[in-house]
């Protein structure tokens, strides 16, 4: 879930979910949590890239995973992808999440080699998790405010007016010139 704090209230911007494939389903919870972080951030890239944001989770190992000393394989690639973003992981107790997803959790096996068994090494709980992304940097704009701003932009205004005043969608030839101006 991508949300934004407006005043003292958390407002949902968008939801995201992913069905896990068979190899992902048999992974331990710690590995699934890192996958959830990576996939969620990639999905909301257009909201999060080049913005500082918080990633609240009740999965304590997530903070440890991102500071892993010598990651290998897939975990190393995931951590490398996340380094493009400016975020802070904020640990919250599972009970403080009204939208916590604690279903279908499989505890990490003693012999789990894929995540180096964070629970065993660090004594961390790995049984409950949540996939929540929160950003406080996006200003809330209404659709009327966005349309007003678009009408004030000389290049976008011409395209938008053609769209608003035409029953049919304008052809590419009709708007190509204005489109190219928006790129300058």
Automatic annotation (TrEMBL):
Q: Which residues form the signal peptide?
A: none
The organism of origin for this protein: Araneus ventricosus (Orbweaver spider)
InterPro entries from the entry? Answer: DNA/RNA_pol_sf, Retrovirus_Pol_polyprotein, RT_RNaseH
Keywords, A to Z, come to: Endonuclease, Hydrolase, Nuclease, Nucleotidyltransferase, RNA-directed DNA polymerase, Transferase
A GO molecular function assigned to this protein is: hydrolase activity
UniProt entry tagged with the keyword Signal = no
Source superkingdom: Eukaryota
Q: Which gene encodes it?
A: pol_3446
Task: Report what the protein is called.
Answer: Retrovirus-related Pol polyprotein from transposon 297
Q: Which residues form the Reverse transcriptase RNase H-like domain?
A: 1-85
